[in-house]
Amino acid sequence: MLKKIKWIGIFILIFVISIFVLKNFSEDEVGDISLGLFTTQDIKLNILKDPIVTGVTCHVASIEADLSFSDPSDSSIACRQTGEITPSMIAQIDKSKSGEVVFEKSKSIFFKTMKIRRVYDADNQTLMYISYSTKEITGSFKHSLSTVPLWGTKAYQEVASLTE
């Protein structure tokens, strides 16, 4: 019986170590900043390419705590035009007021997720990207916003042509 418990313990330990190792080798991770020698928390910098508007790249900074069941909810986002943005790309996106989720990442085993949503501001011809946590923390849902104006792209339309 003790041998069986020992093997189960070894299996669980290997499983937990594997999760942490795989978690740290994310394809979209471009930076990893330690918060100090005596902490298990790091700032992870991830890259996100918009799957439809491929000329937009976002960088997201968030805290990951390796030995915790839940990562902090704080994150920041910065999005920039890094390639061509065409009218056909804009025609494909969700133009509702709530937009659409373009990325999500689990931040907890307790149903907390960080999501990035794209919302189109038609009046100002601007793409808005909002990073937010799906779980309320200390009375607030943590969020961060970045915008990408279409001015200077092929997707930008003159106001006169929009009203015709």
Explain this structure.
This protein is an alpha+beta fold and 164 residues long. It has one domain (28-163). The chain is built from 3 helices and 8 strands. The strands form 2 sheets. The chain has a 4-stranded antiparallel beta sheet, with no helix packed on it. Strand 5 (100-106) and strand 6 (113-121) form a beta hairpin. The longest helix has 22 residues, at 2-23. The chain is elongated and about 75 Å long. The model is unreliable at 20-25 (pLDDT under 50).
Relative strand content = 35-45%
Q: Largest sheet at a glance?
A: 4 strands, antiparallel
Q: Order of SSEs, N→C?
A: HEEEEHEEEEH
Helix content: 10-25%
How are the strands ordered across the major sheet?
A: 1-2-3-4
* Count of separate DSSP helical elements: 3
| Overall geometry | elongated
State the low-pLDDT regions, or none: 20-25
Q: Cα distance, first to last residue?
A: 80 Å
Radius of gyration (Å): 20 Å
Which structural class best describes the helix and strand composition?
A: alpha+beta
Number of strands: 8
Whole-number average pLDDT?
Answer: 79
- What's the number of structural domains? 1
